[in-house]
Amino acid sequence: MLRKVGKIMMRPVLVGALLGAAAGVPAAAPPATEATSSGCLSGSCHAEIGALKHRHGAVAEGGCLACHSGSDADHRSRGGKGFTLASKGSELCRRCHSVPGKKKVVHAPVREGECTCCHAPHGAAGAHLLAQQGDLAPLCLGCHDKAPFTRKHLHGPVAEGRCDACHDPHESDNKKLLSKQGRELCLSCHEDFARKMQKARVVHPPLVKELCTSCHDPHGSDQESLLRQAMPQLCVGCHKEIGDKIKKVKVPHQPVVQGKGCSSCHSSHFSDTEGLLNGADQRRSCLKCHNSGKLGDPPLADMEKELAGKSNLHGPIKKGRCTGCHDPHGSNYPRILAGNYPSEFYAPYRADSYSLCLRCHDKNLLNFPETTIYTRFRDGSRNLHYVHVNSSKGRSCRACHESHASDGQKLVGVEGSRFGEWRVKTRLQLTHTGGSCAPGCHRRYSYDRASKKHDQAAPL
């Protein structure tokens, strides 16, 4: 009669009376000698055990009686019922082996004394008396859920069926039978990652305070990099304020909600740049994408070209901080601006028309027709910013100034602002206390902050 032990079908080991006897003729039970025991693997008996690549030490040495004890010489004719195991369960294994089970976490079969759940007692094709060589997946998945191992992306050891690369199959002092604790286990393979992380100036806090498995599934995932969720959903689980903003804004930053998501701009683990940016600074990070003039509809400017070689940069850009004017995650204003900035040449003045510019520039810049303190663009005390902007047909900032960079002083555009197909050049000339301009909107007018008398120019 056959019985199933582990993954291999095998008969009770034949020892004793049948050794050397003619078929069907019982013989006296011989003593348990090496020669006698080795006869169990003869061609007429348990030859399939002898053919196994890896045999249990006792079997290989012909010591069947180390595990089996026999009392009935009529072993073969009685279907192998004349022999019994010397001990039950793991107690039998303990006669020779130091059976594990003393650490904090013990694998269930070990704890229950079921060694043969995983190991074949006589021999197997794989080392350690396991059913297969190397690939443990068929064995482990006989008990464990298969779902994590059927996903699109698999962890390298999982793909090769090497569960023992991370887990101790018998016992461990770590949860989940892990061979090492949390991050230490991951970094024992990801050595290059560990070296770079040690040198990085900025490390993502979860990498220090949490386990790698907070973001990554250690077995498999349908997301790249074994992420537990797609970005940005994974990130906003912690960065809730940004998550709320992304849901509500009228103009989301496209890289946040498409493609690689947050990792388009940020390094997920560590960086030498504030904010975990994946560039040398904000400016370089932004220019990785904003360097073609093909993004967006209508296309956004080629900012790399626009900034190249310019002698005067807008303050935030000079500091490498594009976020001075743009919200990198999303905004309710065009071009993900952080406030209102008129997109037209003419823009009727309202209290919040220039909320973007007035985040940095004096909020009273456009409120008083006369001033000696809120602007240097004045003729005596006449506020020339007020004259140009604060009217029903006010000129927007872009009528004179470039937003990012210029070769002209005060960010005044040398080529001039677009007015349909025409370029309105300012022809600005500065003096120590003022200057003059002749933009085509009017003839050349001069202004002088030290003057007590206004230039008698026609109203703009």
TrEMBL record:
Domain Doubled CXXCH motif: 56-98, 107-147, 155-194, 204-241, 253-293, 314-363
Gene3D superfamilies per the UniProt record, alphabetical: Cytochrome C3, Flavocytochrome C3, Chain A
Signal found in the keyword field: yes
Keywords from the named record: Signal
Position of the signal peptide: 1-28
UniProt-listed PANTHER family: CYTOCHROME C7-LIKE DOMAIN-CONTAINING PROTEIN, LIPOPROTEIN CYTOCHROME C
Entry protein name: Cytochrome C
Organism listed in the record: Geoanaerobacter pelophilus
